Amino acid sequence: MSSYLVVVILLLVMINIKRTSRKPRFNTDDMYALQLILLFVFLCSLSAQAQQPQADPDTTPERTVYTVTEVQPRFRGESGNLQEYIRKNLRYPKEALKEEIQRRVFVTFIITERGKIEYVHVLRPEVPEFDEEAVRLVSNMPGWIPGKVKGKSVACRYNLAVHFSRN
């Protein structure tokens, strides 16, 4: 927040110098360079803020659930490959298979401090057969390596798109 204030103050000073000076103290090249520097500082501050750990709305006084962590959680399954786990364990709904229906289901869940899966649900329910299968698939996943903040394992919200296609 303080970096925003610094940028605003510097911009106001630049505008004031430009308005009050009969004879410009800076030439246009200097002003252009100063504006580029200020833009760079502003963008760097935005980038730094975007990477800070952020708490999830489901946080409780007993436990903080993060949406952004310093170290992201990782799937720990047999081969360590999440897509392979999905490919091997996904059960395509029979009616949808006959009609060649394809879908993408967005599932959200919490990976606990110990790597267990909790609170699995579909973000935008559409077709119950696909939604139920996606929830079953995620609920039965093996443990994950939890996300970390300041070197400590933390609970983390994770969103996953489960693709139902015959390719």
Structure, described:
With 167 residues, the protein is an alpha+beta fold. It has 2 domains: 2-50, no CATH class; 54-164, TolA/TonB C-terminal domain, CATH 3.30.2420.10. The chain has helices spanning 2-20, 28-50, 82-89, 94-98, 128-139, and strands at 54-55, 65-68, 74-75, 103-111, 117-122, 144-145, 147-149, 152-164. Strands 1, 2, 4, 5, 7 and 8 form a 6-stranded mixed β-sheet that branches. A two-stranded antiparallel ribbon has the order 3-6. The two termini are 48 Å apart.
Judged by helices, strands and strand pairing, the structural class is alpha+beta
Domain count: 2
Residue fraction in strands: 15-25%
Oligomer: single chain
Going by CATH, the architecture of the largest domain would be 2-Layer Sandwich
What is the assigned CATH homologous superfamily of the largest domain?
A: TonB
Strand tally: 8
The number of distinct helices, counting runs of at least 4 residues, comes to 5
Overall pLDDT score: 80
Compose a concise summary of this entry.
The chain is α+β, with helices and mostly antiparallel strands and 167 residues long. The chain is 40% helix and 25% strand.
Question: What order do the helices and strands come in, and which of them pair?
Answer:
Layout: H1 2-20, H2 28-50, E1 54-55, E2 65-68, E3 74-75, H3 82-89, H4 94-98, E4 103-111, E5 117-122, H5 128-139, E6 144-145, E7 147-149, E8 152-164
Parallel strand pairs: 2-8
Antiparallel strand pairs: 1-2, 3-6, 4-5, 4-8, 7-8
Helix pairs in contact: 1-2
